[in-house]
Amino acid sequence: MSDLTDLELLYELSETAEREVDRHLRQAVDWHPHDYVPWSRGRDFAALGGEDFQENDSALSPVARAALVMNLLTEDNLPSYHREIAENFTLDGAWGYWVHRWTAEEARHSIVLRDYLTVTRGVDPVELEDLRMTQMQHGFAPGMNSMLLSVSYVTFQELATRISHRNTAAVCDDPVADRMLARVAADENLHMLFYRNILGAAIEVAPAQALAAIHAVLTNFQMPGAALPHFRRDAVLMAKSGIYDLRQHRDAVVVPVLRHWGLLERTDLSGEAARMRDLIGDFVDELDVRAAKFEAARDRALERDARRRERVAG
Question: Engineered SS bond to 149: which of 100, 128, 144, 298, CB 3.0-4.6 Å?
Answer without folding.
Answer: 144
